[in-house]
Each structure stands twice: as C-alpha cells, then as structure tokens.
Amino acid sequence: PSVILMECFVAWKVIMKQLIAYLEGVMVLMDIHNSTAEELTKLGAIVQVPFRAGNQFLGERAAGDIYYNIRDKTCVIANQHANLGRTIDSSIVQRLQNLRTEIKAHIKVCLRWYHILVCQ
Hints:
mainly alpha
C-alpha cells in the first residue's frame, strides 16, 4: 500500500507541475491581450476626426470616413482584446487556481497516508 500511495504522490506532483506551467502560460496570454488592448486604445486616440482643416474631407466615401472607420474599428478590436483578457482571468485563471488548491490538498492527504503507513 505504501508503494501505491507514493506513486499517487509522484503522479499528483507531476500533474501539479504541468498545471503550474500551463497557468503561467495562460497568464502570459492574458497579459498580452491586456497590453494589446491598451496599445490599440492609444492608437485609436491618434486619429482625430472630424478634421480641423475644414469640410473638404467630409461626406460619403471621403477621406474623413476612412479615418472614422479606422478609429471605430481600432476601438472595437481593443475592446475585444480587453474582454478576452478579462475572460481569461475570470474563468480560466481562477478555475485553474482553485484546481491547484484542490490538487495540493490531495497531495497532503497522500503524504499523510504515506507517513502513517511507513511509520507503522
């Protein structure tokens, strides 16, 4: 029985290392999306419309429309990245951290049983 418990402990330890590595990767991904959202928001602020030079760029299919579209679509993409960053944090990271806590508890149980069996 002690060999089985030790194998269980080793298996949980491997699972834990993999989970931590995965969690770190997910957090990097979350940071990338948050940074992308911030940079896109800054880029969207560069485009200033309507133009101050006059009304010659206004109207349908004019240069002003292009700049409105660039600004608006940049804002939409920035919001999508920000939402994805929040989703990764709230759903994936939080659940993985809870799972990590549960796995640590299982490892402690395995260790207790192992010490009980070995010490007898």
